[in-house]
Prior knowledge:
By secondary structure, the protein is mainly β. The protein is about 15% helix and about 45% strand. The chain has helices spanning about 1-15, 50-55, 370-375, 380, 405-435, and strands spanning about 30-35, 45-50, 65-70, 75, 75-80, 80-85, 90, 95-100, 105-110, 120-125, 130-140, 145-155, 165, 165-170, 175-185, 195-200, 200-205, 215-220, 230, 230-240, 240-245, 250-265, 270-280, 290-300, 305, 310-325, 335-340, 345, 355-360, 385, 390, 395. The strands form seven sheets. Strands 20, 21, 22, 23, 24, 25, 26 and 27 form an eight-stranded antiparallel beta sheet that branches. Strands 1, 3, 4, 29, 31 and 32 form a six-stranded antiparallel beta sheet that branches. Strands 8-9-15-11-12-13 form a six-stranded antiparallel beta sheet, with no helix packed on it. The longest helix is centred in the last third of the chain and has 33 residues, at about 405-435. The protein is elongated, with a radius of gyration of 36 Å.
Amino acid sequence: MRCLCRGMVAACLLSTTTPATAGPSPSDFRFTAAIQGDYPPNAPVSVPLSREIMAEAKSDFADVRVFDDMGQETPYVIYKQTEARKTPKPFVFEIVSYEDAEDSDEITLKRPDGAPAFREIELMIAGRDFKKHIQVEAGAAPDAVQKIATDTIFDFSSRLDLRKTAVAIPETDAAFLRIGLSDEAQPPPDSPEMRLRYEGLEFWTEGTRAGPFRVDRILGWSGARKAAEHYFDHITIEGPTVTADNDGNSVIHLPGKLPVAHVTFDVENSYYCRRIQLLTAAEDVDEAYRVTAGGVIYKIPGVAESENTITFDQPSRYLRLKVLNDDNPPLRVRSVTVAWVRRNLYFVPEPGRTYTLHVGSDVAASPRYELNQLIPSDFAKLRHYASMSVLGLRPNASYDPRLKPTTREAVEEVIFVGLVVILVCLLALWAFRLLKKMPTQANE
């Protein structure tokens, strides 16, 4: 009996202290695809992820792995193919000379050594309520400059928030600038008034004397302003399946799991203005779909322009589109194009090895690789890496599913409780048998 109890205790301990495996193996994934292409060894390569891979993977790509032909896990990093937003950079001109004439000011500037070519200058001015004509000359020397731009700078802050002190110029790397400033339309001394026409509107100050005007410094701005640029993959669904809900709205069914950055409609109707809802679900069952985003598409009668694209930016999910018709006839949708930002996987192949990509697992957690620190998300550098391709996904012949971590914990808890109950029952039985063996005392 004593041996039995010890065995039960040992079983309880083993059931709760058995360690999990160090990481997933190739047999933990439902799908696999070969990675093909020439590559320079020991240098990063890029692998564009196909729609099928993104559909089978979790939204955070936690269940994506790369294994070599020896079954060894290979670190990787996944980035969106996006060119970062660009903003101009400023530098401060060196002031060479200043001349104060009767009706104008003239400032000579020098571009600092090493400063790049510039396309805009900005005057940092202390003061308000001014309007001045500005002429910009540029050249290789102070006495060899030519006019390159004229403009007007102004400030009407005593009446409204309207101020302009920057001047756009043709891009130049001239070493010297000469800036001439002169007053425009000076009001009579006994009636201090300023007037300005700007983009079809007229503004003026009346009874307000112009404040002090002082140029603190002048900046040069280099580089163009450019918004972030995304590279998209897309799929066009011709003649999509459309059903009607109980409220008469049109529900457009999209095939399979798809990520989405924006959706574009091709509509046959001559005019329309409809609200669109994006419905998403983790499983393709009617009751699982929920509204996650919305937008409006429209086409105005007699106007060629229309708006048929809506931005959604959702990870890979089952998708449906609901068109809210109200009392209008349903739209005749010829096709729907779903686009998403391209994802590229980057890894470093070793000489002589071949690689496969595995995806779809219930036990794989997000990997913690160091590669994201060694290969930063720098579009200018990433675009120069050699590219490999992924063949079509196929079922993993060696797939051998294990219990999910949550399921494993639940099973272990049930086993532990069962063993404890059995152990208590055995102890009670042992105690009962022990008491029966004890001699009884005779009554006195």
